[in-house]
Specification:
about 150 residues; Immunoglobulin-like; four-stranded mixed sheet; 3 helices; globular; binds copper (II) ion
Length: about 150
């Protein structure tokens, strides 16, 4: 009897997995291939309705949306330091994310959902220090992989 229930639950999970939204994992690290203080990966392409889960693998990081870098009508989000945040991205567009303590060190990420509708506005946002260079690169990906 118990086995039947488990099997049914698995079948249901498999079904929703096919039809449902994907989850993208972005980890926060003190060190990565691209240097110190990084989101891994720092560029994600997602579909509307997908979720992105930010996990602080190393301590001292957070994930929050950057002002002016979410599509119109989207609520900004802000995770606390060391806090795991999961956001569901319903609207098409680009989403710029930063780690507040390491923003100037270039700890930023870009998520493109569906059609990047707000690229121009988002790309016009000014950033401190190394974040400027990292975003220039990330917007390059957004255009190139379209
Ligand atoms: Cu950080």
């Amino acid at each position: 009897m118990k086995k039947t229930i488990v099997t049914a639950a698995c079948a249901l999970l498999a079904l929703t997995g096919v039809a449902g939204a994907a989850e993208h994992l972005i980890e926060m690290h003190n060190k990565g291939e691209k240097g110190a203080m990084v989101f891994v990966p720092d560029f994600v392409r997602a579909a509307p309705g997908d979720t992105v889960r930010f996990v602080a693998v190393d301590k001292g990081h957070n994930a929050e949306s950057i002002k002016g870098m979410v599509p119109a009508g989207v609520e900004p989000f802000k995770g606390g330091v060391n806090e795991e945040v999961t956001v569901t991205l319903e609207k098409d567009g680009v989403y710029g994310i930063k780690c507040a303590p390491h923003y100037g060190m270039g700890m930023v990420a870009l998520v493109v959902v569906g059609e990047p509708t707000n690229t121009e506005e988002a790309a016009a946002v000014k950033h401190p220090g190394k974040a400027k260079k990292v975003f220039a690169e990330l917007f390059g990906h957004a255009v190139a992989s379209k």
